[in-house]
Amino acid sequence: MSSHYETLGVTRDASAEEIKKAYRKLARKLHPDVNPGQDVADQFKAVTHAYEVLSDPQKRQVYDTTGNENGTAGGGGGGAGFGGFGDIFEQFFGGGQAQGPASRTQRGRDALVTASIELKDAVQGTVYTLDIETAVTCTVCNGSCCQPGTSPETCSICHGQGQVQRPVRSFLGQMMTVETCSACRGFGTTLPSPCNECMGQGRVRERVSKQLKIPAGVATGTRIHLANQGEAGPGGGPAGDLYVEINVKRHAVFEREGNDLHATLRIPMTAAALGTELKLDTFDGEQEIRIEAGTQSSDTVKLTQLGVPRLRGGSRGDLLVHVHVETPTKVDAEQRELLERLASLREEEFTEGRLAERGGVFSRLRDKLGHRA
Fold first, then answer.
1. CA-based angle 361:275:328, to the nearest 5?
2. What pLDDT does 199 receive?
3. Residues 175, 127: contact at Cβ < 8 Å?
4. In what order do the strands lie in the sheet with 242-248?
5. d(CA 218, CA 123)
6. CA-to-CA distance for 278 and 289, rounded, in angstroms?
7. 143: Cα within 13 Å, side-chain hemisphere
8. How many other C-beta atoms are found inside a 10 Å radius of the C-beta of residue 161?
9. In the prediction, which pLDDT does 105 show?
10. CA–CA separation, 249 vs 312, rounded Å?
11. Helix, strand, coil distribution of the chain in percent, nearest 5
12. Torsion over CA: 187, 189, 191, 192 (sign)
């Protein structure tokens, strides 16, 4: 098997200009249009592929190192896959090969919209009304692009091919180049009576409402995929897909962390000291919560299975109620007398402060904030 250098008839140290000059000479000699009736197509492809590799500095370096433009040692690869044939052909000869007429019927684009929901909806699930502007199939022509009772006609310029050929002069002599037909824009047909409603597009833009079922457990960033609910395609083509990205609004009371919910409960110091029972409003209705005597600030009461459900089924997270004990900032004379008497009974009139050991209130608060030493 010849190397790419041998195929072009140049040495391994040939310059880029020498490689280009050799390719032009061989291309002029072997081009199928210049040699009608002769079987030179394979030779022309081999020459073109060799030029594709050697004219690219990176590909040439890989080829010189491994003997294979794919980067694997052991040679081979020359003449296989002509990935850049079309590009090089167009570079030197100014045209492409006929592809046939394009279809007016195409798939519509995918669409992405955002749905903003309340935290309660994320916990319990909901039905959300999407109000969006999108492309829908024209109801007048049903996507045919034509006035009712008419149909597309074969283009008289390209005769249904969607492309036309025209002669051009090049260093190879006179060549034929292929261009998109300007009369039919490459479709091969024309619309003698385009639909007045959609202007021959087969679709119009409208504002539509869609009902979206949002499952429990979604979070901000969750995307719901609705197949074939995107924009309708031109020419009566199928609709693309619709993606709905969820945005969960901040809640005034509850904060979500994973599948758990967090809330702060403020209680007076007397309730913390004596203990009490309270009722809290949650997404699952009113719940009783017991505050044990001696409860401290930063203590947490867990209400199991009252958090957010897992999106794909299974158990729910928990509701974590963080207690904050409030110390009165203003006391009247009677209250002060009672507090002083309590301090005396507890022998706390002249209590000296002491630093808490690690694991105390401050440590728990620091760890909660993520500052671990």
1. 65
2. 87
3. no
4. 111-117, 242-248, 223-226
5. 8
6. 5
7. 17
8. 19
9. 94
10. 21
11. 25, 30, 50
12. positive
pLDDT recorded at residue 135: 92
Q: Are strands 189-190 and 276-282 parallel, antiparallel or unpaired?
A: unpaired
Residue 362: its pLDDT value, please?
A: 46
- Of 198, 185, 206, 204, nearest to 146 by C-alpha is 198
- With a cut of 50, which residues of the chain have pLDDT below it? 73-86, 89-91, 93-97, 361-362, 369, 371-373
CA 353 to chain CA centroid, nearest Å: 57
The tokens for 297 are 């600030």
Predicted confidence at residue 73, as pLDDT, reads 46
The answer to whether 68 touches 77, Cβ cutoff 8 Å, is yes
Per-residue confidence (pLDDT) for residue 26, from 0 to 100: 85
Is 181 within 8 Å of 163 (Cβ atoms)? yes
Token pair in block for residue 32 = 């199928």
CB 230 within 8 A of CB 111: yes
Identify the CA nearest to 217 among candidates 283, 132, 265.
Answer: 283
| Residue 73, Cβ density class (10 Å: 0-12 exposed, 13-18 middle, ≥19 buried) | exposed
CB burial string 171-210: b at 16+ within 10 A, e below? eeeebeeeebbeebebbbbbbebbbeebebbbbbeeeeee
